[in-house]
Amino acid sequence: MFRVVIVEDEDLIRKGLIYSFDWINYDCIVVGESPNGKDGLEVITELKPDIVITDIKMPFMDGLQMLEAIENRNFETVIITGYAEFEYAKKAIKYQVSEYLLKPINHDELGMVIENLIYKIKNKQMIATLKKQVKSFSDLTLLESDVYFNESNYECRYIPDMLRYIEDHYNKKISIEDLADELELSTTYLSRKFKEETKHTFSDFLNKFRIQKSLELMTDGDYKIYEIAEKVGFSEYKYFSQVFKNYMQSSPSEFLQSNVFLWDKD
Questions:
Q1: Is Transcription regulation found in the keyword set (predicted)?
Q2: Residue from 1, 16, 84 nearest 53 by CA
Q3: Each residue of 9-20: pLDDT tens digit?
């Protein structure tokens, strides 16, 4: 569940947010509360919430001062403000404030805000997971080219021909039937030999090779995703996205969003 802390000096508003809003429905739980910014700073530091909802004007320390005092703001922030304070509240942009709620607080509006924040949090978590999995472009290798394209590694003399065929035609619509016709051999024989020697089916190897090529194109930054899909032999973007996700555990757009390719360029 997503952890929420509410910092608000008006007891009626603070308690109302805690007890009258259906947090469970949004997979959230209120883990802490505070009536002022000074105490709120301690609560946030100790509980490390995912979402902080805070008023601006409060005794001892206002909401913006509280946010400024937190060094690592690893949470999404919602500012509660009155209409007269709204322009002042917008200054909170530098404190990475995500949303604003005007008093009196409407529960439907709060619900939409929470849904938006949860989407952002999940997206950040996905990106963090990708960055842990992929430390550099070299980690993205799906197929070891030096191994698979070394002819001396195969007993069946047709395997190198099949691999060269994939390398030369991966950007077109091809199948093992096309290759069988070209080599004048049976599809069954080629499929069996290919699997025996490469440990991949022809289709799996072709898809991995194509996705590998798509990763290389992504590093260039010169193409849109649908253009990359076409360049590596996928006529339908939807199918490309499906195959990409099967191998990389994320969609092409999510993968690009994680900026994993920038690390080798620093």
A1: yes
A2: 16
A3: 999 999 999 999
Pairing of β 76-81 and β 2-7: unpaired
CA 119 to each of CA 4, 52, 157: distance values in angstroms, whole numbers, following the listed order: 15, 15, 52
Q: Where in the chain is the domain with CATH 1.10.10.60?
A: 137-265
171: left (phi over 0), alpha (psi -120 to 50) or beta: alpha
Q: How far is 16 from 104, CA to CA, in rounded Å?
A: 11
* CATH for 2-133 (3.40.1110.10, 3.90.550.10, 3.40.50.2300, 3.40.640.10): 3.40.50.2300
Comparison of pLDDT for 138 and 253, the residue scoring more: 253
- pLDDT, one tens digit per residue, over 132-191 is 655 544 455 667 766 778 888 889 999 999 999 999 999 999 999 999 998 899 999 999
Q: Tell me the CATH number of domain 137-265, given options 1.50.10.20, 3.40.50.300, 3.30.70.120, 1.10.10.60.
A: 1.10.10.60
Where in the sequence of the chain do the CATH 3.40.50.2300 domains occur?
Answer: 2-133
Write out pLDDT tens, residues 87-111.
Answer: 666 665 555 667 888 888 899 999 9
CA 29 to CA 67: how far, in whole Å?
21
| pTM for the predicted model, two decimal places | 0.58
Phi, psi of 81, rounded to the nearest 5 degrees: -150, 155
The pair of structure tokens assigned to 65 is 């001062």
Q: 80 has which bridge partners?
A: 55, 101
